[in-house]
Specification:
about 180 residues; alpha/beta; UDP N-Acetylglucosamine Acyltransferase, domain 1; seven-stranded mixed sheet; five-stranded parallel sheet; 2 helices; 19 strands; globular; binds coenzyme A
Length: about 180
Amino acid sequence: MKKLTPARRLWMKIRMLFISDSPSGARARGKLYEPYLPECGKNFKIAAQAFIYNPNKLRVGDNVYIGFNSYLGEGPITLEDEALIGPFVSITASNHLMKNGSYRFGGFAEDPVVIGRGTWLAGHTCITAGVRLGDSCLVAAGAVVTKSFPAGSVIGGVPAAVLGRNSTPAAPPDETPGQ
Ligand SMILES: CC(C)(COP(=O)(O)OP(=O)(O)OC[C@H]1O[C@@H](n2cnc3c(N)ncnc32)[C@H](O)[C@@H]1OP(=O)(O)O)[C@@H](O)C(=O)NCCC(=O)NCCS
């Protein structure tokens, strides 16, 4: 794994200016990030304007997709096979700490986030530090997830609570071009 220095980040950003918004562009963005990830499966795709703050702490399985304008913040994050991250999603695996009555310079504490196989984070969801979602979960649009949920959970709201359950397991890997 290469360390992501500010110079390398700048070079990546410049290259991204020339990548299209098509599915092949999403794959090209995935390939740009790949050398900086500790683990990366096949077919990693990233839509336009998504931003990974610290790729050196992001583990990615096979066929993972990150949607438009999503933000993956500081701390260890694992996206298992076929995790589907929608648009405008925020995942951050750390919290600021208070020092002298202020959060500004208090540093931060990491708490890993894990998104299970085949789980879908719909648009505008927010996943906070320490959350572990099992396989085949659905997080409804706009949810703020503050605690962990087991496989098959359908959750939504602020803070997220159970709306229902997915009875079917995630389908086998989908190799359909463009997905
Ligand atoms: C979660 C979702 C898939 C559910 O769709 P659905 O199966 O048609 O479910 P329904 O609309 O029948 O709603 C079922 C229940 O969940 C609730 N619900 C649905 N979406 C919700 C949400 N985002 N937040 C909170 N509650 C929600 C409904 O109010 C309803 O509650 P009720 O049974 O008490 O009336 C859909 O609401 C959603 O969030 N889609 C994401 C769309 C998106 O972000 N796309 C971006 C591309 S990745």
